[in-house]
Specification:
Distance between the termini: 24 Å
Radius of gyration: 23 Å
Largest sheet: 9 strands, mixed
Number of strands: 20
Oligomer: single chain
Order of helices and strands: HHEEEEEEEEEHHEEEHEHHEEEHEHEEEH
Strand order of the largest sheet: 1-2-3-13-4-14-18-16-17
Helix content: 25-40%
Structural class: alpha/beta
């Protein structure tokens, strides 16, 4: 699967995990389940889903303790999520009540064709075991219309969008013949029809609003990519490519793709949880190794934490550091911060650079301006719970957290090449 096909499929964290699981299964990885005992073997590969929106996969070499290499990314992205009792009627306009997930650039979501994807949960025979169904409407369904400039003459002087008032997408026109209760049920009726189930079975849902316009190349030489969800599907894709194409036959190679990074990672399926340590401890236990072996291998292991970085913006170059600024098509970006908002130290930087040089992979550095606070990502959260050397890396992009972002086409190739090399040595 190429990057564009992957982007088209990964329209929610659930779909990202499902697409990853499909690729792993095709490559011979066997699926495990958290609620079952594991009997693992050397020379085999496995994957496990953590509450459907986080995915871990690992390949066990013939000599499992030779090395421990881990690469991580996140499956979520800033977006709008649909609230329960979603439909609201304003003079016959049916809108969906939504909430903001993560730090999105709100204005970028206006006047775009939008759709819905995620999970619908249905009543089953056992109350503790409801049935779930993934859903992707897959067509333009919604839009959030701007107020006309004639009604807001100062819109080009800057606008503030209230998420409860200004960000509710238009869904349908409601006829006056229906009662208010039937109008309120119209969204559930729509979901029931899409899922081909009785509406009374729908107990809940977790639905993401996403832009429907697909990824594309642009530029005089088609050297740029414009797409939604480059943050962080570029990293998810690179992790999958790395473990699928890596050639190492020793040690343990592992990827972990976490949900909820955009809202802090403090969830049962987030990076700042016991999810990955739990999985790794079970791997070591199943192979007959104790806790001491696990801790020793962490200490000599290496983790790559993948997330996008801020490329130098041609219209605002002053926003970047004066000497450490990545550019589009400049290669893998190594992200550093003395605050440890990004994981890494001098040795980790050296290891990453040496690996790039050994495989002729271009690289560049990113640090925030000294008077500007940047973001954070998974590396430091993970290594606080699993003490091991780590480096934050990624592809440099423009318009991070916009409904549509921009990257250099060559940078994905560099990222994929580094992950393949990481899982081949």
């Amino acid at each position: 699967m190429d990057l564009f096909s992957f982007l088209d499929k990964t329209v929610s964290p659930y779909h990202a995990v499902a697409a990853g699981a499909d690729e792993l299964r095709k490559a011979g990885f066997r699926e495990l389940h958290l609620d079952e005992s594991w009997r693992l073997q050397t020379g085999k590969a496995y994957f496990v889903r953590v509450f459907d929106s986080t995915l871990a996969a690992f390949r066990i070499g013939e000599s499992p303790r030779e090395h421990l290499h881990i690469a991580t990314a996140h499956t979520d992205f800033p977006c709008l999520r649909v609230k329960p009792t979603a439909l609201t009627n304003v003079q016959g306009y049916g809108r969906l009540n939504v909430e903001v997930y993560g730090g999105m650039i709100r204005s970028s979501w206006l006047d775009r064709p939008l759709s819905l994807a995620g999970k619908v949960v249905l009543a089953g025979e056992n109350p503790y075991e409801p049935e779930t169904q993934l859903i992707d409407i897959g067509r333009p369904l919604l839009t959030i219309p701007h107020l006309a400039i004639h009604m807001n003459r100062k819109v080009n002087e800057g606008e503030t969008l209230n998420p409860q008032k200004d960000m509710l997408p238009l869904f349908t026109m409601l006829t006056g013949e229906k009662s208010e209760s039937k109008q309120a049920d119209a969204f559930l009726d729509f979901l029931a029809e899409e899922c081909q189930v009785d509406r009374q079975r729908i107990l809940s849902y977790d639905l993401t609003v996403y832009p429907t316009d697909g990824p594309c190349y642009f530029g005089a030489k088609k050297e740029f990519i414009s797409a939604s969800r480059l943050d962080n599907m570029t990293s998810v894709y690179a992790c999958l490519q790395g473990i699928l194409k890596g050639t190492s036959t020793d040690g343990i190679s592992c990827i972990a793709l976490f949900d909820n990074e955009e809202v802090g990672s403090k969830t049962k399926q987030g990076a700042d949880s016991f999810a990955l340590p739990n999985i790794l401890m079970r791997v070591y236990s199943s192979l007959g190794y104790g806790q001491d072996a696990y801790f020793a291998d962490l200490a000599k292991g290496f983790l790559l934490s993948l997330d996008v970085a801020h490329a130098l913006h041609p219209n605002a170059p002053e926003k970047n550091d004066i000497t450490n600024f990545p550019k589009l098509n400049g290669g893998v970006t190594i992200k550093a911060a003395c605050s440890q908002a990004y994981a890494g130290d001098a040795e980790a930087i050296a290891v990453t650079k040496a690996l790039c040089k050994a495989h002729d992979i271009p690289y560049q550095m990113f640090l925030n301006r000294s008077d500007s606070r940047g973001g954070s990502t998974l590396g430091s959260l993970l290594t606080a719970n699993m003490p091991m050397r780590a480096m934050d890396i990624g592809a440099a992009i423009l318009a991070m957290h916009s409904a549509r972002e921009t990257m250099g086409a060559a940078d994905q190739q560099a990222l994929d090449a580094l992950l393949k090399a990481f899982f081949s040595r």
